[in-house]
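no rush on this but wanted to send it before i forget. theres a chain ive been looking at and ive put its sequence and its fold in token form underneath. please have a look and point out which stretches look like helix strand or loop to you. thanks a lot i owe you, the record is right below:
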Amino acid sequence: MKLKKLTIRNFRQFYGEVSISFSTDDKASVTVIHGENGAGKTSLLNAFKWVLYGTTDFDTNNQNILSERAIAEAGQDSPIIMSVTLEFDDDGFAYTAHREQKFVKGAGLHAESLGPSVPLLNWINSAGLSGRSSNPGSQLNQILPEDMHGYFFFNGERIEKLAYNSASTQVREAIKCLMGLNILDRAEKQLKGPVIRHFNKEAKDSSSGNMTVLLEEQSKLTDKIQQKEDEIKGWKSTLSEIDLEIEAIDKRLQSIEAIAEKQKRRKMLEEQLEQIIIDKADASAALNKNVTERGFLAFIDSQLTGVKQYLDEMRIRGEIPSKIKATFIDDLIGLGKCICGQPLEPGSDCVMALESYKTTLKDNGVEEQFMTLFGHMSHLQSERKALFANINESMTKLTELDDRRMNFLGQIDELGEKIKGVEDSADLEERRVGLKADSRRLNANCAVGEHAKSDWEEQLKDKEKEIEKELANSNQADLSQRRKQLAKEVAETIGEFHEAMAHQVRLDLSKKVDDTFRKIMKKDYWAEIDEGFTLKIFKNIEGHGKQPVWEKSTGENQVTSLCFISSVVNSAKERVTKSGGLQKGGIYPIVMDSPFGALDPEYRQKVANFIPALADQVIVMVSKSQWRGEVERELSKRLGKQYTLTYQKPNPGSDEKFEYTKLEEGFYG
């Protein structure tokens, strides 16, 4: 995909019609758009998203995106058209994507939308034939999936979030989307959902009696499990976004000098709190296992005492064990001599008397069982004491963990109040408190949802056993049931294959990320995508080996994130030339806003040198201060086109009453 031209009409501060043509030269692949803060760089970035998907990243989303000046200059009740057109090439086709929305002028600066935005997509193929897509939204999403847009059209100052510890979900999803692995995800979901529901219905329609009831219950359980899985997935996705925002707030709070130490202390306490939660879960699991497997010992004390007492009485009466063993008598007769020294002649009265004792002795097997049972009784009593000791130990540990948890929570709340008291941090802290509350609520929802899903899955297993039994008793060969079982097995296999593929791609990307990272970083660090799909930086400490770098600067996070994106783009490009695989790949441009703001001069120079290699086409938006010096020297080597955004503000006494942005080709610094 190569971007050729973007035309904006009455979109945000762009009044009238404004166009930008991008460089498509392979040797001069960089287009630079200059603009100060507020000049419209973010609006340009969102124009791409709006024309492709009909949405924006503004705080108010698609509200207030119509130019105020266009509204003001329109006549009462007259129509106003807002539109964005993007011309691009992809896979031998020349496309023109156009989206427009019509409004009607109301009172003052109010304009009423006349329906949703309308997308259009025209194309011309390599043979010169042209056409118009009957489903433009779907086709655009196939060319550049909406889930992927954030990795190609991004704010450079925010992209650092990819390197946050809480960004593992985003990294995992990026890998799946950009490498085309989401096709496996969709296949698995399709099999588990509509396909199985279809076979359930088919089976019900061809059954009768008790089988119909069982299949109806099975179908209801399947639907409930799927619905709960979707809910949990949504909650976890929201949780991931919340965790990212909390981590971003924490970094901003830590940058405020007056509260930096307090924030650092709170972060440490929260990490310890997370470990306490893990330890509590482990202790509770151990306690539950102990009670489940050995809890019966608590209720057999009287039985153990009774059996042991009865065995003791038998022993006291001399019934068990015997005082003389039969083998001992046989040995004496064999030796021909009694223990008193008298000779034992064969057939004598003495030998006959000894042999008569053998008939009164108990069976040796019974004696062995007596000894074994007596030993078991003693062992069970010892185990019973150990059970209570272990329960007491677990309860003590849980109480200690609860006390530590309450202590930490108190300290965290106290630090929160102190942080809130600092003027610069008050709003951030208030937002953080709200996000933490949302996080607790969603975590609770997930826990309850997982428990309910687990119960339904157990019920479903039991129901399926009943169905199998019913089929066996009725000698029915239910084709629908066999098909459904096959669909489940295929879905499970696809799920396992999906995860294996994602991890293989992770390993490949991790190496690419590290290769790029080492070329840019001035420290002796290296980068990895770990097994949990978290972007991490490591270093070697003498005597301790490989250690994670916990305290990373904004610049280091930004460099790590850029290395990840470049590796993904590079891998996607490589996949295009490989046939026969599931991973589709693709050739994508990168449009980035302000990627140099948090970098020191040395990193600016290295990143600027590295940016042209990110993709076959790169569009960079920078302020004058970010452009001057190292960035200008490096990017000029691959510079194809330049534009300047100039913000025009209304001045008292002038004819200009509304703000707007003027766009001119070239650099006017």
User: Anything to note?
Assistant: The domain at 2-24+36-144+634-665 is CATH 3.40.50.300 (Rossmann fold). The mean pLDDT is 82. Residues 95 and 123 are 4 Å apart (CA to CA). The longest helix spans residues 364-420.
